[in-house]
Design brief:
single chain, Nucleotidyltransferase, domain 5, 5-stranded mixed sheet, 30% helix
Length: 196
Amino acid sequence: MLLVFDATVGCCAVAVFDGASLVIERSDEMIRGHAERLFPLIGECLEAAELTYQNITAIAVCTGPGNFTGARVGVAAARGLALSLGAPSVGVDRFDAAADGVTGEVCIRLEARGGAVHLAKYRNGVADGTAETVQAADIDDFIGDTPVLRVEEADLASIARVALRRLSAGDQPRPAPRYLKPANAALPAQAPPPII
């Protein structure tokens, strides 16, 4: 059984797949609170499907880009579960999931904060160049004549399909968050040296 989850968008989403076949899926809309909700939601899915953690043979997690904290929460959960269950884990970013099964050229568009968007071009499901975070004034220049695919929600089935292919290929690196821009948090100012 493959456990799949995504905490990088405006929801906390969990699903269990038997191969590529969906067994159960649950999702709660939320802007924050993914860390508190993810494991209870996983538990609810497993209980409803009459499964336990011991039935999980692999873990797939969406790595972003998206909610900065949510990506870290999901990746940490996937790594921790993999370690405790002795199961492999694989990260799948939102671009690769969106490009799954798409033929020809496409520019995948993910909304970002502050009027910016995350953009990446793909050709037949494979990245064609580097993903970028682009401000509104530069979006058309990046896209050009390429057809656009807008992605807003978590697609756990696509994440599962990509993860299964990667797991079957073997030797996957541990999941890591996919960031395209720095966090919106400001570092604290350096304290002045103490007066002696």
